[in-house]
Amino acid sequence: MASVSLGLWVAVGxxxxxxxxxxxxxxxxxxxxxxxxxxxxxxxxxxxxxxGGYLNAFTSEEHTCFYAKAHHRRLDLLLDVLxxxxxxxxxxxxxxxxxxxxxxxxxAMYLDQPHQHVQELLDETLWPGHALGRPLTxxxxxxxxxxxxxxxxxxxxxxxxxxxxxxxxxxxxxxxxCLAVKRYARHFPAGEPPRAEPFTGRQxxxxxxxxxxxxxxxxxxxxxxxxxxxDPRRYILRVLNAVLGENMSSRLFQVLREDRGLAYSVxxxxxxxxxxxxxxxxxxxxxxxxxxxxxxxxxxxxxxxDTLVPAAELKRARDYLxxxxxxxxxxxxxxxxxxxxxxxxxxxxxxxxSVQRRIAAVTAAQVRAVARDFFRTExxxxxxxxxxxxxxxxxSLLEI
Length: 400
Known about the structure:
By secondary structure, the protein is α+β, with helices and mostly antiparallel strands. It has helices spanning 24-31, 41-49, 75-88, 93-111, 114-126, 140-145, 148-158, 174-185, 233-244, 251-259, 290-306, 311-328, 332-346, 352-360, 364-374, and strands at residues 3-10, 54-59, 64-71, 164-169, 207-212, 218-226, 266-272, 277-285, 380-386. It has 15 helices and nine strands.
């Protein structure tokens, strides 16, 4: 590879935040780009972009990652910029005030996009009363309450050496990266690894959450409680999801779009956390057709629960996942993402080949057993953004 991708990963995300600090992790992510003792915001971006590279970051429920990519000869520069941002950001009051407005615009953008808004509503429904159910961006109220003092205190408490992993992918040796990072290591604050409050809430029946707003179509997200990322059933769920709705040859796409023309986009996906997880089916449909769509989805869930997936279909699903993993790891950025997530999620590195072997070993009987484990009425959650309320029969359509 010509490039090197460098990531500074922190085991800090939205689920560590108490309610009054909702949005702090994402806010801090933004602030690290707004100037240090040595560089202002423009100089940070110019340092990387000026050599043909790029710089970015993201915040998730459990991680924050700051990363850069450029020619491998620029590794020292990338490391210097990321470490400068991470260790020496100024959090200037004027920049905090500006960035608060920027994040409010980001929040407004998401709320104006029903397919984004419905996912936040679903999170609130799946994980009520817990940080996993709160928006990563925070709310207007919490953003207004996040002071410089609060942001710095949160950073000092959580952004510590035990919470941080430096990852690089490209033509570089491990020992060379260690030597390069060693120059900065003593500047990292000591502390304890972050500890998030586990989700312990029980669900005893289906839940429905509706947001009425002016839209041309109804956007829905159907969330089904599943297992954590440490549960061995996660590999089986990945195969089940590929059969159900992950791509254009999946059952939901064929039934809802190709056969009946009920939706332009329909998709199912998985999210795994430390102790919980979910399978989510989402689509945009005419509100009048929502009951029909939910009946068809229910039929497909029951079919997975009651009938073995045919051998040819199962093989296609497994081969799809194995091939996608090969394609996804072609570039240095994706390699860096894989390593960072593996280390923070599991404390060790799984090879792609080992994951592929686990996927290849999944049987039709295992898929049916996992569907029986999770496709239960009491674990169903439906979030909907629509121009009007739904009919009285919709809650009954969540009974499977």
